[in-house]
Specification:
three-stranded antiparallel beta sheet, Beta-lactamase
C-alpha cells in the first residue's frame, strides 16, 4: 500500500510538471506573438540595447587613437536619459575613471550655458531687447562703427569684430582685459559677414552686468544654475574638487598641466570668470540644461524659458548669410551636428572637446564631454567623434520612431 501511494504521488508530480511545462510554453508563445506585433513603446525598441554599444565603440576607438583620455556621451529626451556611456580616465596619467560627476571645462559652451541663457531670461523679462544697440548698455564702447551694432549682431557673430586676440599676452585682470576688448577696432563693416567672435561674447557679458547690476558669475548663478538645479556648475572651482576635474592641456604659456583652472588663456587672464569661457560642469548639470531647452516638464526647469523665447533664440536668423541662431548654431550637414540632424535643431561646441546638440523635432539631445586638448590642443580627431556620436543617436532615434509608426499603422510622424 505504501509503495502504491508513492507511485501515485510520483504520477501526480509528473502530471503537474507536464502541465507547468505546457503553461510555460503557451506563455512563451504568447510573448513571441506579442513581440511579432511590434513594440509597445520606446522600451521595446531593439535599438535601445544597441545604442550604448555604438557609442562605446566610437568613444573607445577615439581613446585608443589618443583623441582624449576620457569622455562621456549622453543621449536623452526632454524628460529622460536614453543612454549614458563613459570611457577612459580623467587624465592620461593614473587618475579616476570618468563618470557623470566628473567636472569638465566646457570652454565655449559657456557662451550657451551662461551667456545666451542669461540673455534669454533678460529678454523674456523685458529687461533688454535683441535689437537694442550695445551702446545703450555699454556706452564706453566707442570704437568706430560700433554705434549701430545691436545685441542681436553680437549674438549672431556678425558685428564685424575679429574672432580672437591674444589679450593675455598684453595684460591681466578683468578690467584691463576688458579695456583691451572694448578698444579693439572692427575687422569689417557690421552685418557683412559672420566671424565667430570671443570679443563679442565678452562685451555681452558686460551688458549682463550693467543690466543686472551684478558680477557676471553671480547673475548666471541666480538666473540659470540655481533655477535649473545645476548644483555643480561653477566658475573657478575650489581646489577641493580637483580629484573630480578632468585636466586639460600641458600649457606652454603657463608652464604646467592646466587642472582645475580655465583652459582659455584670455578667460584665465580675466580671473577665470568670463562670458566666453570659464564654466566647469558635470554631465548631470548639462543634462538638466539640455532638457530645459527641450522644454522639460515644469518640475525639471521648463519654467526658466517659455516656448516663445526658446524659439526666438534657436531659430536661424538668415540662412543665406550664416547658420547662426541667437547664440546657438544650427546644423549644416557638415558640422559637429553630424550628417542626419536638420533644423530646427541647434547646438554648439567647446574647444576643450565638448559639444551639445538639441533636436526638438525628435525630442533628442546629444551631449559629448571630453578633454581632447589633453595633453595638447594639436591632437586632431574630435570632429569625427562628434559627427559619429550625433549620427549614431539620430539614426537610433529615427529607427525607433519608424518601428513605432509601422506597428501602429500610423503613416504620420510619431510624436516626440
Amino acid at each position: 500500500m505504501r509503495a502504491a501511494g508513492d507511485v501515485g504521488l510520483l504520477m501526480l508530480f509528473v502530471l503537474r510538471s507536464r502541465r507547468a511545462v505546457v503553461a510555460l510554453a503557451v506563455a512563451l508563445l504568447g510573448l513571441v506573438v506579442a513581440c511579432s506585433r511590434g513594440p509597445v513603446g520606446p522600451a521595446a525598441w531593439p535599438e535601445r540595447v544597441a545604442l550604448p554599444d555604438s557609442l562605446r565603440s566610437i568613444l573607445e576607438h577615439a581613446r585608443a587613437d589618443s583623441v582624449f583620455p576620457g569622455g562621456i556621451a549622453i543621449i536623452g529626451t526632454r524628460d529622460s536619459v536614453l543612454a549614458t556611456v563613459t570611457v577612459g580616465t580623467q587624465d592620461w596619467a593614473p587618475s579616476a575613471s570618468v563618470s557623470d560627476s566628473t567636472l569638465w571645462d566646457i570652454a565655449s559652451l559657456t557662451k550657451l550655458v551662461a551667456l545666451t541663457t542669461t540673455m534669454a531670461t533678460l529678454v523674456q523679462d523685458g529687461r533688454i531687447a535683441l535689437d537694442d544697440t550695445v551702446r545703450r548698455y555699454v556706452p564706453e564702447w566707442r570704437i568706430a562703427g560700433s554705434d549701430g551694432i545691436t545685441l542681436r549682431d553680437l549674438l549672431t557673430h556678425r558685428s564685424g569684430l575679429p574672432a580672437f586676440k591674444l589679450f593675455f599676452k598684453q595684460s591681466s585682470g578683468r578690467d584691463a582685459v576688458r579695456a583691451l576688448v572694448l578698444a579693439t577696432p572692427l575687422d569689417t563693416l557690421p552685418r557683412t559677414r559672420m566671424v565667430y567672435s570671443d570679443l563679442g561674447a565678452i562685451i555681452l557679458g558686460i551688458v549682463v552686468e550693467h543690466v543686472t547690476g551684478q558680477p557676471f558669475d553671480v547673475a548666471v548663478q541666480q538666473r540659470v544654475f540655481t533655477p535649473l538645479a545645476m548644483s555643480e556648475a561653477q566658475f573657478n572651482p575650489p581646489a577641493s574638487l580637483a580629484p573630480r576635474i578632468a585636466p586639460t592641456e600641458r600649457d606652454p604659456w603657463r608652464g604646467r598641466l592646466v587642472h582645475g583652472e580655465v583652459h582659455d588663456e584670455n578667460a584665465f587672464a580675466m580671473g577665470g570668470v568670463s562670458s566666453h569661457a570659464g564654466v566647469f560642469a558635470s554631465a548631470r548639470d548639462m543634462v538638466r540644461f539640455a532638457q530645459a531647452w527641450l522644454g522639460a516638464p515644469r518640475a525639471m526647469g521648463a519654467a526658466l524659458l517659455d516656448a516663445a523665447t526658446r524659439r526666438t533664440f534657436t531659430t536661424i536668423q538668415d540662412s543665406t548669410f550664416s547658420s547662426r541662431a541667437i547664440g546657438w548654431d544650427t546644423p549644416t550637414g557638415t558640422s559637429s551636428a553630424g550628417t542626419r540632424m536638420t533644423r530646427p535643431a541647434f547646438g554648439h561646441t567647446g574647444f576643450t572637446g565638448t559639444s551639445l546638440w538639441i533636436d526638438p523635432a525628435r525630442d533628442l539631445f546629444v551631449l559629448l564631454l571630453t578633454n581632447r586638448v589633453n595633453p595638447t590642443r594639436e591632437r586632431q580627431g574630435i570632429a569625427a567623434v562628434r559627427v559619429n556620436v550625433a549620427d549614431a543617436a539620430v539614426s537610433w532615434r529615427d529607427r525607433g520612431r519608424l518601428v513605432a509608426r509601422s506597428n501602429t499603422g500610423n503613416s504620420a510622424p510619431a510624436a516626440p
